[in-house]
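Issue: copy button drops trailing tokens. Both records pasted manually instead:
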Amino acid sequence: MKLAEVWNQHLTGATVRPLTHEDDELIYQFQAAHPEYFAHFQDHPVTRQEAIQDVTDVPLNALPEQKAYLGIFRDDHLVVLVDLIIDYPLPSLVWLGMWLPAKSLSTADSAAFYASLVATLKEAQAVQLQLSVFMGDRQMQQFWTDQGLAAMQTTAVVRGERVANVTIYQDKF
């Protein structure tokens, strides 16, 4: 199943498409516009190389074909960057590595896009989605709680020499 194609069936007024290295400049510019997100786990603004490595990076024990690196577009403008790992870390579970909405996107629109993602994942036989939120990111903590996700545990994530505390959230379908 092509996730973007199925997700598009659940959307109105926007489209989803895979992002590739042909989109490197778009990805970099979009991520660079969110310095507060990257400040949670690194001591410098996101570099172009860091931004574009997200296109193909997969976690340990995941395969490249499990990754879906997608963009939600409205009027040809990227409004949400989405990084998913399907069947990870277990079958029927989806790991949401990044949900980065444009600053101009309303919370209601972001919530509607997330609801359409859930409908898509249910259609794909997924039973659960998990994600992590940096402890200092109160806005996203509130957003995920408002979407019905439950905080499961707090843990530390090591990125280079920096350690960030995160809360793992879960959405059971």
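Record 2 (pasted manually too):
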Amino acid sequence: MFSNFDSEILFAARLLLGGAFVFAGLRNIQNAALVSQLMTTRGVPQARLVLWLGIVLQIIAGALVIAGIWTAAAAACLILFLVFATPMFHNFWDHQGPERASRINGFVGNVALTGGFLALIAQSL
């Protein structure tokens, strides 16, 4: 069904999409105290536990996307992650000036990632 070139492009797409989440999960481990505190101020109950569940989800689902294993399910899990994380960390409506612009960029980036995962799901079904 796919030529070798198509397979290589698809692998590059999975590597970039999944790799972004593996990287983010590893980065969140380094910044766990700060991120947990931010989540607490945003009203997340049991923020530390939720953070660590999110980190595990990012790393495992990201790795599954990269490997092409259970791709649709892993991509769906990452979409669900984005649905909850995006308004929590990219709440542009609460900010002004350069901070607002930065948050809008993060929000739009996460919307684009969601689109990429939807395309990956469509391709893998």
